[in-house]
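Notebook, p. 212. Picked up where the previous page left off. The plan for this session was modest: take the two constructs that came back from the sequencing core last week, fold each one, and keep the raw output in the notebook itself so nobody has to go hunting through shared drives later. Recording the first one now, exactly as returned: residue sequence, then the structure token string.
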Amino acid sequence: MRKIFDIFKRFLPPYKKYVVWSLIFNFFATIFSLFSFAALIPILQILFGLKKTEVAFMAWSWADSFSHIVEAFKNNFSYYLNHLIQNSGPELTLLYISLFLIVLTALKTGSTYLGVRVTIPMRTGIVRDLKNKLYRKIVSLPIGYFTEERKGDIMSRMLSDINEVEMSILNAVDMIFKNPLMIIIYLGVMFIMSWQMTLFVLLLLPISGWLIGLIGRNLRRQSAEAQSLQGAMLSQMDETLGGLRVIKAFNAETKVENRFAALNERIRKTFNSVYARYNLASPLGEFVGTVVIAILIWFGGVMIVGNHSTIGAAEFIYFLVIFYSIIGPAKELSKAYYGIRKGMAALDRIDTILEAENNIPEPKKPVEIKAFQNQIEFKDVSFKYQSEWVLQNINLTVAKGKTVAFVGQSGSGKTTLIDLLPRFYDVKKGEILLDGVNIKKIKTQDIRKLIGNVNQEAILFNDSFYNNIAFGVEHATMEQVIEAAKIANAHDFIMATENGYESTIGDRGSKLSGGQRQRISIARAILKNPPILILDEATSALDTESEKMVQKALENLMKNRTTMVVAHRLSTIQKADEICVLHEGQIVERGKHDELIALNGYYKKLVDMQSF
């Protein structure tokens, strides 16, 4: 329950007016319901001749005791009823009572609808706020967080888990703003009518509540397991769609189908158990309620027959109707309880993301830096992802306007090193200085504004050429986008498409070749116009012809910029101002191309292997 109230505490403040209106409408619905039930008393009195024959009007005032006011109300109700029967006859009286019942029922149902209607903007608004908060958190978390998580599982939390929470919120809204109010008012009227029978009922209710609570104990754990399996299924589907070419090439369709079927069967069995327990709430609540009513009929009947009751037979029927009306809200409460237990597991999974710690914190008093002036310095930098050091004691200075290349075998730490500058990860030891300022003292956004990235895999979006090139650059004009595309050698193939710059490029640029995707990525970096450029194996996945086009675009991009290049194809970095050779996380050689060749060391071996 604490988690549900925590949701209201976090998200309800903007929706207070809906809460107030819901309470008002539900209050009136309950009052109208009581008065519509009260129409049973005169009907029974007329039909079965239970009306009192001699009733005198009883005077009263608000200064009288509560019990006297209640007694006067009951007495005068019988007085006016007898008076109406004597003047209009029983037939016309029944007609008046029936019309009264219709009007009150219309008021009750209208108020009930309005009570639910005003909660809809609140419920949908809470879900919207929760989705926005979760999405903002996902975007704000560092890249390192997602290396530990499955993409499909995160998507499951964003979609199915939030949908699950939505249902639990709906039940909780009914529970908090409607059902308890009805139960309290109904019990209050029952106390006024007969406190002895009401106390007897209240002794029975905790027993029935305990029986219902037994079923929901394991529901949260089973629901958490079911949601986790849903995340695993989304991950598997994502892997299948991404690796369909490999699956077909290795004739592995049967293998992945069997793996999916096994997981699907586990999900089915888990949900069988969850829904079996969840759907047991309503019939069990109805059965327990009927047992309580049967016992109450016996207890009240004995009191009335023995003349030990303060109410008559007609009032006892009204008492039973009120109590039976409590069973409906009580059943909804029990079902809402199970829904909350079921939704709590989904909420816990969402909160693991919302409460995840960002291990790349923003500085409390950031140093403002608007432009890159002098140099980038890596001073005694060491880094590890988990236990083993990936980089050790890196010391490097990159002067403004220079190009520094990083080469070495796979796993030597090249990409990790350049990922430290934009703070995709934070150094564990040492520091990185930008114009003499530790980058941990600069706002992350300010650092990244100065940097342009072109990666080995061109990360594009299922959108138009224009929006992909202008991505991250506010208020970019079409003329600026075209100019960037021309510099990147992308303008010609863009104009060859049906709608030019408004043509969509497909999922991750699937309508384009590798070289075309890379040139769009370069055009995006050109439009950003950053003083610092990071190129991470930007041409390694391309054929010779595409590489030539992309390399020319890169040369245009690198003019008058400070560039850090990771390269496997050594032919592309021979003109670099400095080449750093990394081996097992350390810089083992550095210098220009000719100098490193003369050393006859690691770099010479790499060149010889590629030449061969």
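Okay, moving on. Second construct, recorded in the same format:
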Amino acid sequence: MPQSIELLFIFKVMKNFKKILISILVICFSIFSMAAGCAEGGTPGDGGDDVTGTAKTNRVRVYDIPEGVERYSGAEVYINGEEIPVYSVMVNTSQSWTANNYRRVQNGVCLLELDGTATVTVRPQTEINYSSVVRPLSAKITPIANIEENELTFTFSSAGEYVLEINGEAYDAIHFFVSDYDESDGAADISGYKNVMVFEAGLHTAENDERISDNNVVTLSSDTLVYLEDGAVVRAKFSANNAENIMIAGRGVIDGSAFERDANAGTVTVPLEFNYCSNVILKQFFVLDPAGWCVNFYFIEDSKIDDVKIISSRSNGDGISLQSCKNIEVDGCFVRSWDDSLVVKNYPRWDDRTVYGETENITFTNCTVWTDLAQSMELGYETVGEKFENITFDNITVLHAMNLAVMSIHNANNAEIKNVVWRNITVEDGRNAADGAGIIDFRVLYSPTWSDQHTDPTPLGNVDGVTVENVNVISARRFTAVMGGCYDSRIGFESNRYVDNVTVKNIALAGGRPTEEECSFTSTGEEYLRNFTFVQDESFTVTGASFVSSRTDEYLSQFGDDIAVEIVSAK
């Protein structure tokens, strides 16, 4: 048995011993309570006054923040009188791209495990009013303001990704990432992997962890599991090339705040970079302040990104970027990015740029997006390679689109983009997008910046077959779209390029159902947009994205009013 697995086994045994001991104490306490109830003439569960004595206790578990990791100073957070640790993360308030001159402010990140319900009290440093909001709105959580005590209270009853905007200010926010309570105490399932790396609770850097190289990289080989324990903070990038069967999982944090990002100087640290790999699984962890792109999948096949949470604030801070990939699922992720949030592109191979990429069968489902700078869901601009098809975005909530388009296709190379679907989309705040680039932006165009950057000039391709349906835009003055192809006038490439067969079906705007005439649909030229259809089925109720609750009402009905809060000390 490899030493890493032996250590993990011993560690799991110790954790299980602690869990067994706690269970014995809970059982003893329950027996004592039942005996006391019977002595008073009642039988638990018989409908008497002590029925609540059999109710389950609500449980919250939080892992403390390791020494050396910055804490949020903008507010205090409490549950059942216990102060909860809150990470600090930087967000960028600018909607103009800069290489290194950032306009950033501190926001908070609170990581919780929950079983049952928990009422949270937030005491901001700023004076509160009655305008605070918890997003996503579909979670139907209303913060109650106590002006005299200067505190906000609200209740969670499900795992999810939530954002409290204090006084309704988007850049004065605390992100609450709530996970279902982990009955295994965070122990890893190591079956199926030859190599296991466990990053235990505490701060890991190149200075104190020999698995991190001097240039802050953890290099992964095939058949490797990386497990980030609760309370672990790792300052490094994870990278693999030409490998398969790799998983990075756990509820730890990958922290890029210590690394420089200067686009002029070329300094960058992409925390998750995988090239020419298959069967890569990224699951559950958090990435804060990456120094560049966050997730870079390049020529990756048959892989999944599940329940990963990302907040970026520096140049080229794209969230999840899939380049020349096939058969990729992205499910249940939260991405707040200072650039494009969810991105699909085609690139050539860097070792032979005459070999173009192929993209097919990409799905994004049940994701929450906040885009501070660029596009929320973007195909392009780099589209080098003809095969580019079967892309689906389903049940996506866009909390804020602060600048550019929400749904965009920019075909600036030779891709034939086919069969793209946006379905069940909610845009909570699309005001800036609607007044600028549009809620929808589907174009074939030559880009002086991007078309020739990675390969010799290519002809332009086309877009054929796009469906946008069940879209609920909650806040915007209008539903705007720019669509169409172009005439490519470059010498040797003279031709018409088209956006063809686009259907926009069942949309809502600010609670109403706009007609086509009430929307703002702009074509780049009538001859370059063909077969456009707008449909409002009045018998269909536009819902947009739905909130996916992890607990049923029946399950929650088992819980009483008591709550146990466990704060696990940092190492």
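Notes on construct two before I forget. The chain is about 10% helix and 45% strand.
Flagging for discussion at group meeting.
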